[in-house]
Design goal:
Blueprint lengths: L1 H30 L14 H19 L11 H8 L3 E4 H10 L1 H8 L3 E13 L5 E5 L7 E5 L4 H4 L7 E12 L2 E9 H7 L1 H12 L7 H15 L15 H8 L3 H15 L6
Parallel strand pairs: 1-2, 4-6
Antiparallel strand pairs: 2-3, 2-5, 3-4, 5-6
């Protein structure tokens, strides 16, 4: 009798397994093939994520200088999103827009984060002792760019005729002068973006967000290349100056480079690309 109970027990277990398997198969058939996802957050290599983040920041700065860059190959709207910038314009075009139609210009620029390029005409202080610069515009008045207080010490080195890139908040037109507030050099602004860029890189690599194919390819390749770098590499610990030479040394071996490229390609297949 005991032996029968044991056998009967195993039969019931077997039937239960078959039923469970059948339910799982039915669910999978109904749901369709499973969609691949990116690596889980716990699996991400944080030094490689950090590497991607600061390399992106450096490359965004290079791209703005119209020099050869990796991010320069990606769509401009994608780059603006990474930089959290609403509009990009020149001081001449900014003043011209306000001279043409103040209402339309306010709709386009006021309250927006603007990447503004231009030539310094003067460096001054207002009645509150706050610093501002005047950029050459399309007319006689120029564009009034009020400086962020944190930039005051740096502003001592500015000079007339200097070509600059500032990130500012559009503030509209006061009397006859088109102005901007809270201006700071583009490279200073980028440095402050590090946490948000790092978070966005991690979200993409975890399959949470989709990126344009060119941007996705760039990030994936940089991340995988970081995985191949020695853990004690200064490049992996925030010392950017040596990165270019270190990458060249690490990947001069064609086999290693091909392995990294293959791994990046496999990883891309599991991520969201649009």
């Amino acid at each position: 009798m005991a032996k029968f109970r044991v056998v009967a027990g195993w039969v019931l277990v077997g039937v239960g397994i078959l039923i469970l398997a059948g339910l799982c198969i039915a669910y999978l058939l109904e749901a369709g093939p499973a969609k691949p996802v990116g690596p889980l957050a716990s699996e991400l290599n944080q030094p490689s994520v950090n590497l991607v983040s600061y390399m992106l920041i450096d490359d965004l700065e290079v791209a703005q200088s119209n020099e050869k860059s990796l991010t320069g190959k990606t769509p401009s709207e994608d780059l603006m999103g990474w930089m959290r910038i609403d509009r990009k314009t020149t001081a001449r075009d900014y003043e011209s827009a306000y001279d043409a139609n103040e209402i339309a210009a306010d709709n386009a620029f006021k309250g927006k984060t603007i990447l503004l390029s231009g030539t310094i005409d003067s460096i001054d202080k207002d009645f509150t002792d706050a610093g501002y610069i005047t950029l050459q515009g399309s007319g006689l008045m120029g564009v009034h760019a009020q400086l962020n207080q944190d930039v005051m010490s740096e502003a001592a080195s500015f000079h007339r005729g200097q070509q600059v890139n500032f990130v500012c908040q559009g503030s509209g037109k006061v009397v006859t002068i088109a102005g901007l507030d809270n201006c700071e050099p583009f490279n200073d602004y980028l440095e402050k973006l590090d946490p948000s860029i790092e978070s966005k890189v991690a979200d993409f690599l975890n399959g949470k967000i989709a990126l344009h194919a060119a941007t996705a390819d760039l990030i994936t390749k940089m991340y995988v290349m970081g995985l191949f770098m020695p853990t004690n590499s200064p490049c992996m610990n925030g010392k950017r100056e040596s990165c270019e030479a270190e990458f060249a040394a690490q990947f001069k071996d064609g086999t290693k480079l091909q392995s990294a490229q293959n791994q990046a390609k496999q990883m891309m297949a599991n991520l969201k690309v649009n």
